[in-house]
Amino acid sequence: MSSTFSNRITQLFQIEKPIIQAGMIWASGWRLASAVSNAGGLGIIGSGSMYPEVLKEHIQKCKAATQKPFAVNVPMLYPDIDKHIQIIIEEGVKVVFTSAGNPKLLTPVLKQHGITVVHVVSSSRFAQKAEEASCDAVVAEGFEAGGHNGREETTTMVLIPAVKKAVTVPVIAAGGIATGRQMLAAMVLGAEGVQIGSRYVASEEASSHINFKNMVINSTEGDTKLMLKQLAPVRLLKNRFFEEVQAAEDRGAAKEELIQLLGRARAKKGMFEGNLDEGELEIGQVSSLLDAIEPAATITQNIWNEFLEALQQPLEAR
Asked: Would you tell me the crossing angle of helices 81-90 and 52-65 to the nearest 10 degrees?
């Protein structure tokens, strides 16, 4: 089978493969984003861990490192979001993924400047709101995903067909996807592309700390759990910090105590600085399938090759 592939997602982003690298905090800088884009997917700079001037630097370096499309992820809880949006517009970024907020707030401004807008959702109801806000596509992120997650705890296998039924815009599947076969399963369920995070955390170009990367590829089934539901649900690898949170939640700790326990810069301490005891280690369930740190181009091509191979196999041979 030819590797030439075209659907609404590849056309929307002008990419070769409908593989999108998630915009993860402390992992998704310009090196990773440009590497994925150069490999034919859509790389994303994760702005959630960046000050405005740092985001500007990463966008400029990404533009220098790739001639292909890339995007910026903007978590709408970020305090300097207006500055981020201004930089994105000034630097001519063509695609923005928004998350953790109401898509009506940013979509009109971005689209006024010709920017393609995609919103991350955890339910079909939120997907409809994104479509009503004129988003060009949605990322339907299932319960398996790492990092901040939906309160509904809907798994990817249930969420994708539900969102596909609810909206007419293209659906990108996320949560628990790291292989070509998982990609094919998501596409059969109605997705037209996949967004992959955890697999790219374990890439050479990810800006996450090598200690964190090694812990990810050595994790096994059951090593992650969705925590901090009183604040903002987040899937974490189990470590000493996780155990402290678990103990606090088990004794019925109030929201204020959990905020104090979380403190400041826990995610940076764990994922960027490599403190595996005291840091917050955000990763998805699919980490248990990972066993190697590889270049992002190799990861992208391996996923694509496996997808194409599985696509052409008879059902009984898969």
From this structure: 30
pLDDT digits (tens, 9 = 90+) for 123-163: 999 999 999 999 999 999 999 999 888 788 899 999 999 99
Residues contacting residue 298 through CB under 8 Å, at least 6 positions apart: none
Residues 140 and 7: their CA atoms lie apart, in Å, by 18
Burial code (b: 16+ CB inside 10 Å, e: under 16) for 146-172 equals bbbbbebebebbebbbbbbebbebbbb
CB atoms within 10 A of CB 82: 12
Q: Cα(234)–Cα(201) distance, rounded to whole angstroms? A: 16
Spatial contact of 49 and 24, defined as CB atoms under 8 Å apart:
no
Domain map (residue ranges) of the chain: 8-208+291-317, 210-286
Helix, coil or strand: residue 299: helix
Give the tokens for residue 90: 């000034």
Query: Mind listing the pLDDT tens digit for each residue in 50-104?
Result: 999 999 999 999 999 999 999 999 998 877 899 999 999 999 999 999 998 899 9
Kindly indicate whether the domain formed by 8-208+291-317 is annotated with CATH number 3.20.20.70.
Answer: yes
* pLDDT of the residue at 231: 84
